[in-house]
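Why does this matter for the project? Reviewers at the last site visit asked to see concrete outputs rather than summary tables. In response, this paragraph embeds two records directly. Each consists of the residue sequence and, immediately after it, the corresponding structure tokens. Nothing has been edited or filtered.
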Amino acid sequence: MERLPATYTAVLNALVDIYVSTKKAVKSKDIADRLGINEGTVRNVMVALKAMGYIESKTGPYGGYIPTQKALEYIKMPGTSMFAFDVAPVFINKLQSNIYVTGIELLDIINPFTNRALVRVLGDLRNVKIGDSIRIGPTVNSRVIIEGVITEKNEGLKELVVVINKLIAIPKVKVEEVMSRNIITIEQDAPLTEAARIFSSKKIRALPVVDGEGRIVGLITTSEVAKAFYEGDLKARVSEYMRRDVPMIDKDSDIYDAMRSMLINKIGRLIVTSGGKPVGIITRTDILHYLASVD
């Protein structure tokens, strides 16, 4: 892996440090403030880091920069979590926690009655209790999800013992193999009343918005329609109320990328595109159903 210039390394360090502590996309201003440098310098560095595959950018009001796995591998700062939020997020009793997994070791693999895992973590274990349910993952490198129950904990060693109820290895499968192709779209010049009619008749809550050439330009949901009707804007067009920040993914992407995008953006579905045109939709439920059906 190439060695980055000192400024690039400092910016990358600050980005990852802020991202791990906040679990949110990081603004260039936050990095500039952390390092005491000009925000313009940070933006220029970000352009280069993105081109080299060290960061991803997220648009919209809650947008910013997110480190990639390549960035995590490059930094490897001693005494940190190894930025395990991207490696293995942890949910306790179905709620996301501030505990991050740094290693998993399977135990009792020949025991026919129970399978256990020794889980090494970073974070405060004081609020974690024996008997709590736990979900780990998906991990980046091994693409594994583990669900189970905590049976032992060692706060000093930062270790948990988990009885595994479910272990899923995410296969390398393209999004287009899992997505639903039954996607309904609406043109940006259509009246909002048409969107309302589709929502009612098809029992759906969101519609991708396309231009005259079929390229996706936005997303309209029942919330925007309700807002327009509340304001008495009954003759409005879809383009006047649609969201322009559309959660999308290319049909040739891996389903792991879809899962990661949903996790980072806290959403349950993505519009699947090909050449800028919507060709399907993939939901968290679609992925779970697919994984449950894998032999």
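We now turn to the second protein, recorded in exactly the same manner.
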Amino acid sequence: MAHNKVRVKVPASTANLGPGFDTLGMALDVYAWIEMGIAEETRIELFGEQMKGIRADKSNLVYEVAQMVFAKAGVSHPELYIGMYSDIPLTRGMGSSASAIVGGLAAANALIGSPFSRDELFQMATALEKHPDNVGASLFGGLVVAFWDGERAEHIRIEPSERLEVLVAIPEFQLSTEKARGVLPRQLSMKDAVFNVGHSSVLVAALCTGNLEMIPRAMKDALHQPYRAALIPGMDTILREATQHGALGAALSGAGPTLLALVDRESPEKAGLERFLLETLGKENIGARTMWLQPDRGGVQVLTGFDESSTLFENIKGEVRA
């Protein structure tokens, strides 16, 4: 059934988790909300500080994604109302662009009666993002192991362990994905490739079986983190020493600059770990804020029964972190 107006809630995501470069992602319980409706004239409302710098015209990513869905479905809705609010930090390695893509796809699909399956939305999202880890996590929730061969994406979803918690340290500076990818080498040694295949495989097995004790040994990487460390002072120290302060493992979140630690929720060392992250970055004169997060298990949600006469922010203000 088509709708006059729809609203979606889409989780942030962290990609790679160390060795799973462009193949492993996890949804996190910090969210973006998108409202979409057919209008007589396009109007885009952006709510909150996080939306500064986002385009509010037809070059807006969510608008463009929606038009792609409509074109694929053979319908025309050139004029839209779009409302957006996000608690996901922009260009910090927490999947803000992937959440916009997934949210735009899900909202546009719901608006015209959901002609496309989640797998079809996954294929569209991956083709736009060019890798399936962040979009897969935001779409399906939980942990997602995936690949894309340039034509089709495949994924397997893993239910995260109830013991798994995530601490992120979000530096005050932004880091574009293009810059973070620009420092990566064009060629890698067979030794480094085998290192990552082994570590990524064991990490996935540990996550599948709930064997959290294996994570510290499996969450090592030779493909991207050593080359990106120069962009984020303090990162080397955090990746090397976080397990000494109570982390199961530490990694660069996506392309960075956010750093994350996987933590056993029953650990008595949480406060010390949080202090270690902030103090290590502080020694490099980098201001940062921390957030304790849980894996999101539901993925993108199409919300119903909301008050269409109220603004997006009025309807969600009880859920946002601001």
